[in-house]
Amino acid sequence: MKNSLSLAITTLALSLGGCAFLNLVEGTSILGRVPEQGNNFEEVFQNIATQRSSEVKKISREFGTLEYINLNNILNHTRRSSRLFDDDRLLLNVLEASCSGTVFVIKPSNEKNHFLRLLNANLIHYPELDLNKNDIKNIFNTSKNNNYNNKEGSLTNIVDSYFVNVNRNSAHKSYYCIVNKEVTDAIWLGFTITPYKSASKTKYEYDDILVYLSKDQILDKFQNQLKDGWIERKIEINEEIKNQQEKAKEQKKAEEYKKNNFKKSIDSQKKVWENRLKNTYQIGDSVCSFKGNLKGNIEVISENRFKVFWHANASVYSNSPSEDGLFFGNFPYSYFDNNFLFQVRNKDINKFEWINKDKISYCTLHEV
Predict the structure, then answer these.
(1) Which residues, listed in sequence order, are joined to residue 210 by a DSSP beta bridge?
(2) Has residue 82 got a pLDDT over 80?
């Protein structure tokens, strides 16, 4: 049984020159009531041309010779509702019958790199590339500004290189015949737009076309070009990943060193508080309190009682107080800077207080 895969359908309305058109919901099938049969995509294409009296035209460019037929004699262009079906079931049925493998359909809403999509879906395989799932994912998720993830890898891009004026935003569709994980041939259905002047106004002529792309003439050459780009991108990505890993390793090493330095300093600050009763002071010495994180100078000494002039209230925050013990080991790590400094903000206060010796010790932090 032949299978068909189709990405999600999005009906598009294109506005050009201020006039909306091509709201493709229904229209005319290019096959008519009696579908043209064929043993492969090429035969279907040739039979459509023969039975609809459409001349097969050929254009030679970079990737080889492209064949197409103009569908203007099939469709009534005076009535826009008669344009191509957005979902031409007759054509799809015929193409499915002609392909000995799987028919894969891609619409404009999923126009990003077709061949990477096929590769990512495991429908095609390039053993010579040695691309694993992560490689494909990394290439596929490259920035949309990069050629590897935009329309460069689509049939529309091929057709555009031949016609120049292909409408990329229309309800065109790409049909791939895939056999044994290889694209054997493809059909592109869409239209070109040709601007022309009429009574000093720019108008547009629309030509619906059906394009046949063969494996030998076009698809292999196009895929080879894409594969060269993918290999280059894989090397770039691996180098980027290596650099990111090295950077992460250095950052981790620096963070560990910072944490160790912080811990040693915190332990030292705690010791200052634990040994506070052993301290001896003189008039004018700078001291700090555990409670309230106050900073001041000794004005009077009376045995184990001190009259302190508090001139600052310290905090790591600009508009709110810190928890008690900021000077003595209760400093938040997130405010320990990369220069290994415990910087605090001091809010000016002016008050005297008699306080016991066990309530103060020498200050340990720096003002910011």
Answers:
(1) 69, 189
(2) no
